[in-house]
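Narrative progress, year one. The postdoctoral researcher (J.K.) led the effort to move from monomer predictions toward full complexes, under supervision of the PI. The following entry was the first complex the group processed end to end, covering 932 residues in total.
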Amino acid sequence: MRPRKILRIGRWEVTKNAGGIDRKTAAVVGATLLVLGAAVPLVLAQGGVTLDEGFYRVGVAEESPLYPVVEDDPTFAVRDSDAELGSAIDLQIDGTQVVASDTQKGQAALAELRGSVDSYNDRVMAGESNQSAAFPVTVTLEYAERNRTIAPADGGDGTTGDGATGGGAGDQGGSDDGGGDGTTGDGGDGSDGGTTGGTTDGGAGGDGATGGGSSGDIGSIARGLTGSDAMTGTPSDISPPFPFQSLILAFLFVIPLNFVIQAYGSTMLSERLNRRGELMLVAPVSRWDIIAGKTLPYFLGAMVFEGAIAGAIIALEPGSGSGAYALLAVVPLVLLFLAATFLGAMFARSFKELTFVTVSITVGLTTYAFVPAIFTDVTPIALVSPLTIVVRDIQGVAIEPLEMAISTVPPLFTATLFFVLGAGLYREEDMFTQRSIPLKVLDSLAGRIRRRRSVALVVVLLMPLVILAELVAVAAVYPISMALPRELWLGLILLAIVVIEEVAKSLPAYAGFVHNRYDRTVRSALTVGALAGLGFFVAEKGLLIVQLLGGLPEVQQAAVVSAGPTAGISPMVALVLLLAPLALHVVTAATSAVGMRSGRQGYAVGLTAAIAIHFVYNFAVVMLVV
Amino acid sequence: MIEARDLRKEYGGFPAVEGSTFSVESGEVFGIIGPNGAGKTTTLKMLAGLIEPTSGSVSVAGYDAGETEMRRRLGFLPEESPLYEEMTADTYLRFFADLYDVPEDVAARRIEETLSELDLQHRDRQIGDMSKGMKRKVAIARSLINDPDVLIYDEPASGLDPLTTNYIIEFTSQLAAEGKTIVFSAHNLFHVESICDRVAIMNGGEIVARGDLDQLQAEHGETVYHVHATVEVPDSVARNGQYVRTVESMDEVEATREAASEAGGEIVDIRTEESSLEEVFLNVADGHDSRSRSDRGADAESGSEA
């Protein structure tokens, strides 16, 4: 590729499209963007989107030391302290005694009150003239990865406190011995509370029980209330309030991409309709120059949008990160949106089909990027989405390089793969033909297949897509699986992974047969299948090596679950465990290949058999090992 | 300037072009004619490097088809005019000049000259608002923006009114006179006859006849003689006081003269009429269609160079 040519094509792409917009339309679009641009900072300056304003009803008397806390938090609506708990109010505060209604909303209100007390304490302490006295101890917080997840807000009966809420910290926090203020009946299961209990200002503890109304009192109340302020678990464990901040941040970043791909898909498809792109193909530029040049303005445009959003949020939200990680993480996401749209535009035969394709891409990729990012603070599985990094960076949370890699490398590789497959169709013979989308998919794969060994390379190239699909499958199945028996959910995840892998292994070989690249003999099918299996094995083990070297967390392990154990085994067993997957992939890919010789139905039969073999193998290995 | 050897192109196992071999000399105008589906467009696109041959080779100006340097020296005009309709003619031509690395001042001058020669009005209009003839002129101007040595024109006057058609054919003749090497395809055989030095006739994916017009006529055409006698002779018709007999050989002319002499008359005029390219084409196409597929395959294998 030649940068000079790419820049020229990019510049002319902008000129060309500018010519298609009349001045009135440009003025309307400009004015709309201006209004939106002015509205976002205003909303943020007013405290952001407060969808939860007055969400919880709290019965509290003015003389209660918790009254100012409740009054200051817009999430709460102050009600008469004598109102009926449950029907009229969610929380009832009598002095320092807090009682929550026996509903999920009541428990959530209690959790919200804990956070409010913490914030209130910080504000009060920050206003003290003697800061040394207000903050006598400097504590460095170091959060360690937990090897088990604990559901929040699962303890307690929602009635009166037992005075031991924070005391549960003994198993972890240790220092939190003053938590027993008797203000709550909830506070989590103790172990959770310990984490926070150990970090709150224990010096103020104890007094809280007396309800003296001083700041120290509130500090002790806080300890009691904040038996847990760190939520872990799965999305299904989350109680209201919903993570609105993550939701809105993720929404802000993903929405512009959906507009950009509409324009991008349209320009790419218009090259194909009426053969408009034919003359560019005759010009002294390569197809990659054309693709890169036409993509560049949309990539830069999307990055400008994303950068502006990040910049506005960072400028208006003190405590945000630098935004550098956010922008870096957005790059593969933008590329993935564009690459998927490009490939879709190469497949679509009309603007009607393109609409279907772009809507599918919008729904699919928005789900992939947006939904996990909502649960940024909840579960590490959220790291499958680059937007999780964006949200964390905006929230000012430190980001490890490995986390960055987990979130960004798979979509980056997938985007590259989509561009490579789409570029295979960017030639006269494929661009202007009216073939169905499934046939175009096969064309794009066949474009990379010249001889038998090519199939192994194409299978390797598909590996990023396989990993991405597996991560999404795991993320999708995981929440559902928590309600199922262990064997069942494990089987469900394994089945999803097996189907993805077998399709990825067999599809390139099928494309080769459909395009008459291979003889339809059993020998040829076995050779092609074996090569496909070998390619998959090499790619999978390469990934495993990366996993072992990098120590990826469990979310990645789930994606390569069939790799088997790696420690505490003899070399011979290790060798067998290494070669067994090779045999598996060769056998299953060959099974599919033998079937596909006789056409689509034969392929379906062969693929089903391969999936069955692979599933039985994986399930047996996992049940033996886990 | 152009060398095509054993060009073959298959689509899904079906041969669109079978073993075409020909060459085009520098400054020559080479016409390719044939019925729809004969393989003309596929052949032209293989010459332009747009389509990769299934087998065989093409070189243009010493470069393999598709090479960047070859593309710099080539001007291609497809059958349709696939233009960017949001652009004006000026911006469209400057865009392609940019792609071909033509300096801005040279491009500006060349655009002005070419559009003036083509008599293109309303250059500031968006191309989408132009008539079909105007669009075709823009497309032709684009094919010349890099001042190419070789022009490949596929049906340059397709679907245009007679006035614009004549204008474009004359313009193409002018380009030929300037020394451009032109490969030219058209359905209107009168146009081909008027500007081409040599012609290849394609049918069923292969070249079934080739040569200059005289050669084609000699090999595939017919010459008829209209013999005018003062007296009635066998198979004659009366016309303007004379009797005209049409024969296909000089022996028959001699026989007619003897018959007129025996009847007491004489021959007063002999007029010669040769087949047009259209008639040659029809003869070739008819003859070709009547042959079996296997025969054509054998011909292609032993086909001679043009």
